[in-house]
Amino acid sequence: MLHNAVLAAEAASEHANEPVAPIVLGLIAFGSLVAALLVTFAFRNVGNRH
């Protein structure tokens, strides 16, 4: 019984140590990829100018 309590406490502490929620990490990754897309889109026609 004590062993189960220790395992439950360890499992709970593993998730409590995350600095940010996973959804926030996903939103940051999505935002950075959209920013990279916009930079790429901004320079799409540079090769045809010269």
TrEMBL record:
The chain crosses the membrane at residues 20-43. Keywords: Membrane, Transmembrane, Transmembrane helix. It comes from the Bacteria. This is Uncharacterized protein. It comes from Promicromonospora iranensis.
